[in-house]
Amino acid sequence: VIRSGIPNFCAVALALSDLGYKATGIRLDSGDLAYLSCEARKFFVAIENDFGVPGFGKTSITASNDLNEETLDALNKQGHEVDAFGIGTHLVTCFAQPALGCVFKLVEINDQPRIKLSEDVSKVSIPCKKRCFRLYGKEGYPLVDIMTGENEPSPKVGERILCRHPFNESKRAYVVPQRVEELLKCYWPGTSDKAKEDLLPLKDIRKRCMEQLEQMRPDHMRRLNPTPYKVSVSAKLYDFIHFLWLNEAPVGELQ
């Protein structure tokens, strides 16, 4: 946010100002919202003074990221420069039946991989076109899902496969699957020549979802302290993620 997001926004906003347009504001969606909003405000005020853009210091700052009453109270006590709060999940869903947080992220454009960087590691996206497979064990239960690059060979039954956590280098395991199921299918090919499958009726999708849940190990499905189901990446995809991450992430400077 501080090293690239805010400076890039200000550069674009100044260019728009020269063309007669006014940038509306920014949205903070992760990290320390109180601290980041205060730092952003200081940046905006400095831009107004240094470049002579009237009113730039009052550029709107909106904050989001699963906000609720406790978060708002904590922000008010800390002090912040947020002008508006985006409250969605906790406003429209029952906390006892929480929403599934899913967001589409761009992973490739014009055959060039793209990665989203964030101070929150859970929000860093996994770049490039991928395939996804479910690996089953001897007892018939799913063991792990693994993502591979689009051109990597498919996992094979009886063949030992190294499964890696996308971001934690110490979390890894070899898996010898007794059954392999490809999960990712193409229902909207866009402009590619990839074969398209017909989307099933909603009742069939629901039926398949229930069947998949019944295949899970009991400890994954228990209500109290369920075992997290593992989603991994191949060794080749792991190396590529971290290569791109290190090359694209801005380097901080301490003074």
From TrEMBL:
| Domain called Nicotinate/nicotinamide phosphoribosyltransferase: residue spans | 24-124
Q: What name does this protein carry?
A: nicotinate phosphoribosyltransferase
- Residues in the signal sequence: none
Keyword check for Ligase, yes or no: yes
- EC nos: 6.3.4.21
Query: What UniProt keywords are attached to this protein's entry?
Result: Ligase, Phosphoprotein, Pyridine nucleotide biosynthesis
Against Pfam families, the record matches this protein to: NAPRTase (PF04095), NAPRTase_C (PF17956)
What lineage is this protein's organism placed in? Eukaryota, Viridiplantae, Streptophyta, Embryophyta, Tracheophyta
Q: Which GO terms describe its cellular component?
A: cytosol
The protein's GO terms of the molecular function aspect are: nicotinate phosphoribosyltransferase activity
Q: Name one GO biological process term.
A: NAD+ biosynthetic process via the salvage pathway
This protein's pathway? Cofactor biosynthesis; NAD(+) biosynthesis; nicotinate D-ribonucleotide from nicotinate: step 1/1
* InterPro entries linked: N/Namide_PRibTrfase (IPR041525), NAPRTase_C (IPR041619), Nic_PRibTrfase-Fam (IPR007229), Nicotinate_pribotase-like_C (IPR036068)
Which domain of life does this protein belong to?
Eukaryota
Q: Which residues form the Nicotinate phosphoribosyltransferase C-terminal domain?
A: 129-240
Q: Which reaction does it catalyse?
A: 5-phospho-alpha-D-ribose 1-diphosphate + nicotinate + ATP + H2O = nicotinate beta-D-ribonucleotide + ADP + phosphate + diphosphate
Name the source organism: Castanea mollissima
Family indicated by similarity: Belongs to the NAPRTase family.
- The enzyme's main class, written as a single word, is ligase
